[in-house]
Amino acid sequence: MNATQKLTDAIVAGIREKKGRDIVIADLSAIETAPCKAFVLCTGGSPQQVDALADAIEEAARKQVGEKPAAICGRDNAEWVALDYGTVMVHIFLPEPREYYDLEHLWDDATLTSLPDDE
How far from 91 is each of 57, 98, 104, 111, CA to CA, in Å? Predict the structure, then answer.
């Protein structure tokens, strides 16, 4: 398993810990102009949950693979929080901004993997 996959798995574990929904992994590794190798997207039900998801992702990535984000944006209003891990970008949305920005389909050539929600 490569480093990007290990980081992605840690991020997904953090999302699942705080009951994030609609997890999608966009594999951008085959796209030369992409800013990173993967996007991980998920949805939180409230600004508080979006913030808690960001905390859980940070903790899981730090504990499982020793990674910290280079930058975090959007924590002030917690409608869309982005964590930049260099090779992986994480986007945590409230439902309305996620639908509006539709990042899953920004990169037409990306391979999308939708993970089932935990019940």
Answer: 11, 9, 10, 17
Whole-angstrom Cα distance, residue 104 to residue 112? 7
Q: Tell me which residue of 37, 44, 46 sits closest to 18, measured CA to CA.
A: 44
Cα(first)–Cα(last) distance of the chain, in Å?
27
The domain limits of the chain are 3-106
Q: Which residue type occupies 79?
A: E
Only one residue has tokens 């859980």, namely 56
The dotted CATH code for 3-106 is: 3.30.460.10
Query: What would the pLDDT profile of 83-94 be if each residue is shown by its tens digit?
Result: 999 999 999 999
Amino acid at 4: T
Query: Amino acid letter at 16?
Result: R
| 62 and 68 Cβ atoms separated by less than 8 Å | yes
What's the pTM?
0.94
Tell me which residue has tokens 């280079």: 70
